[in-house]
Request: fold
Amino acid sequence: MKNEHIRLIFGLKLKQLRQEKGLSLQSLSSLSGISQSYLNEIEKGKKYPKTDKINALAKALDTDYDKLVSLQVSKKLEPIAKLLRSNLLTEIPFDFFGVDVAQILEIFSSAPAKLSAFINAIFEIGKNYSLSVEKFYFAALRSYQEMHQNYFPEIEDYADNFIKEFIPEKKETLNESELATLLMNQYGIGISYFDEEDQPVVANMRSIFRPESKILMINKRISSDQRAFTIAKELGFQYMNLTERPFTSSSIEVKSFEQVLNNFKASYFAGAILIQRDLIIKSIESWFKQTKWNPSTLNEMAERFHATPETLFHRISNVLPKYFGIDKFLFMRFDALPGSQKYFLTKEMHLTKRLGPQENKEDHYCRRWVSIGLLDHLSSKQQAGKYEKPIVDAQYSHLVNRKEEFFVLAMARPLNIMRQLNISVSLGFEVDQNLKSKVKFLSDSSIEHQEVNQTCERCGIFDCKERVAAPTILQKQRQQEEINKVLESLK
Reply:
């Protein structure tokens, strides 16, 4: 346990004992010979007294020295002690959100009984909903991205410097082979390839980095653009000297928020060197000037930059707020097995406010979103043996409950590394005058308009042919509203 937490536990115990004895700070000061201001500092967890002062306090409170200094606490304080022993206060990245941990500790010391009950409730909620520290880290990262509108100038600067050093002028991007040569020449890191025959246990991983032998192992099954991204990401770790990091592409054990953050930074760097900022800005400007919606434009952009749809969409989302003034959008990734009717929202980001579906393993996502419709379309193409390249589509999505409208772009493709998994990625923009003035093809009448909702359980479109579950949550809400109206009329 950290020293500041030990100080806090001592202070909380001292305050509880003093109050149980019915003593004020002034009274305890008189009995112990310790100044009132110093006692106040001790109780707030800011100071830890020396042995002679602890003896004086134990005598004044008629308790044992060992009992006072012990980290064992009463039942009332146990939830706070449990929180401190868990080191959650040091694991949560408070500084990223401008929160001073010392202020939190001071709040604990001012109302320990109420906070104990609150913290105990938080732990119970965590157990009931299977919340883990890892999930919290990823949720914190999403919030961090949203706070900064998913644009990070310091990483852009690293990418710019890398491009100036290693990418010849007027060359749009480095291919997989050129990136691999750079990784070897600059950092002495070689590449080896594996598949399910070589390494069956880790066959679903995209890559594994072995720092001792300086080898980056890459799965043979992934596509060339995925390999390029994997190598570019490793270059990011090395170029930015990010030492606290994961060594596998799939998270096995998350040890700290810094590890999660650095993994994001390396991924952001990879996208920034594969899709150079000036080039993507020019591509978007040209795209937005088109008066007709053309699905092939997105595939052409992905092919030009040798990027996956996910990398392309993330890179577009990086530059839209700063360079186009478009900051009301969401990013979503859905996964599904071919032919399955089960869809999983595995990645999400919402700028400005929560716009569309959020991760929910219990409810059934609305099948009307183009993101999910494309997965069904992809599955049909695969069954017919007609899949060739990512499928692209767009939709005006009218969110019924929120009375809001979004323009949603989506791309779907198989995930090469796992032959039995398809993914779709989406960018959804809240439609307002700002968006209409900048994106000319929004007026194209060929774009489908569709009423959507977040999940079937919350949806009031009762004649929906795509519905797969009853609107149970909506019905409970409406029932409660009726009860409230009756109760209001009885007053």
Residues 284 and 316 are 8 Å apart (CA to CA).
